[in-house]
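dumping the sequnces here before i forget
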Amino acid sequence: MSHIKLELKPEQVAKIKEICKSFNNDPGELINVLHKTQETFGYLPAEVQEVVAVELNISVAKVYGVVTFYSFFTMIPKGKHPISICTGTACYVRGAEKVLDEFKRILNVKVGETTPDGKFSLNCLRCVGACGLAPVVLIGEKVYGRVSPDGVKNIIKEYEE
Amino acid sequence: MHLLICGGTGCKASSSDAIAEKLKLELAANTLQDEVQVILTGCFGFCEKGPIVKVLPDNTFYIQVTPEDAAEIVKEHVVKGRKVERLLYVDPTKKTTIEDSKHMGFYRKQMRIALRNCGFINPENIDEYIAREGYQALGKVLTEYNPQQTIDIIKKSGLRGRGGGGFPTGLKWEIASKNPADQKYVVCNADEGDPGAFMDRSILEGDPHSVLEAMAICGYCIGASKGLIYIRAEYPLAIKRLKVAIDQAREYGLLGNNIFGTEFSFDIELRYGAGAFVCGEETALIHSMEGLRGESSNKPPYPAQSGYLGKPTNVNNVETFANVPPIILKGADWYFSIGTEKSKGTKVFALAGKINNVGLIEVPMGITLREVIFEIGGGIKNGKRFKAVQTGGPSGGCLTEKHLDTPIDFDNLVAAGSMMGSGGMIVMDEDDCMVSVAKFYLDFTVEESCGKCSPCRIGNKRLYELLDRITKGEGTMEDLERLRNLSQVIKDTSLCGLGQTSPNPVLSTLDNFYDEYVAHVVDKKCPSGQCKSLMKYIIDPEACVGCTACARNCPVNAISGERKKPHEINQSICIKCGACMDKCKFDAISIK
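..and the predicted 3d for all of it:
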């Protein structure tokens, strides 16, 4: 197909093709391909999905359907420090909602959004399984346990320089 | 002497890696590195007081250890043989220090079968698993039994699926074994999506080989040479340990071609989930493994007839598999003797919420909720009153005080309006609003519904809207009736397990906490003070001295009044953040 808008740099397209090839361009491996691609690009914009669709010889709609179905995949770039609030039940009954509200208030973003400076993005996730530490907040790979609304300010401060 | 350190996700988040490193350094400084081994194990279960360090052979149990404590543990305990008193566990009721884990209320009533190796072995070392009878069950099956004999053992043991449905495992294997095909698949469902449940993760992190061994046994029984583990991408540590385990098993010839010199060949691959609760349902899971959206499909055909890539597929949950090797080694009669009439063996529960001992426990079926919550769990946090326990995750229901003495098993929980589910157990206290809890679960279901069938896609959304109205004080008594009717319709007409069980939180709270719903609807009040829209902050004019602290701190300027005169809150502007109440030094502000 020749109608792809090449907003992607040629080396980026080559990278996606390489990923698809490593899974033998097998449409059954779509989810693994997307995992790998998101790992590389940080997110899955429409242009990337189009390349994947062409490589695996499936429709773009199908790729888009899978990307939007699973919460792990995102079409919006994440912030430099992605913040994830666990809203699993254990965290919920120990006050995760109030912690989330405080993050929203201080960063002035909604869930799923990224701050205009690209520093922080805010997301919810369901249970990381560290229920003993509830409520739990993840920033990047770092886990913060027993977070209180009052403690939110200090956590954010750690990342603001 | 051994020093065991919990290397589960929870304790790792509290720097258990650093503790292990520090201990090794301290041991080396005392030239004891060859005498004392430091081992990072799987989860001990006692997550509330993590990170845990356990000393063998005397079973000393140190809690909330920090890297700074390492020197003292080595200097006092290892070198001088004196226990570090301040790190020992203190029984919260008797206020006495308990030196070893065997005497802790948390462990006393537990019986560990699926978790037998968690917290004892280094999960990244296959030799330690083999030293604890690992892969003996597979060897025994391959050399002594034919597939049907093995299936008969599992059938006789009474083992039922631990993922939620409770279908007899042996029967499931038998059905898959009787469908002829050139290729069959064994799938391990490790897509633990229930919020608040982490038993599968702990087994995979603490004892991955037990699952691999059981999958191979299942492959032998049904005639499959390929196994797939469908695991959440959110569990990086479990994925890493599985990969290590699979490589080691291949290296030892316990996976691959001609295992134990027999004709049987079996290998295992990982498949990653991408965050969809519905993929816990087996047909949705299979679609997801095929690279499709995780939508469920009509049964029959069952996966045992036509599953992954159209081939007969047997799907079992992680915990189910972990039970298989001990059953083979100790016999069906042994397993059958544990538990209740129709639910045999043990069950792993993830205790969480407002409970003193959050953690992972394994108990024999038939134990009562009271024993679990008050003896093992150590009662309710901060001395509050027990209100409800939610079992079975978003598909389960809320049980109350009157259910505390019901023996826990598959059938009793269903009869009480809840279900076993995968084993999440969330305890709630008097501060939790049950209408909000039901709304919380519906919010989850609405988000996680795959959207294929309309009762689930649209019905749950309408349920959520009704609950939302009620928590805002806009509900009517007709809404309560509507909730019940709609719930019943969704249960009866949904395609898969997700929709068929999603109204359970609504129905069970309606049954057990009807008064609380009525309070929201008729009195426009939330008895536990959780629903913001129904709360009102009021300034008591008698107590207010007019210091203006509240007015200055109100983020929306809802408070007015002259200096040194009583202030007032404009209810139409107030966002109920509570800042004024926090700032008032004269206790003049209260919630009504």
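Chain B touches chain A through 50 residues (CB under 8 Å).
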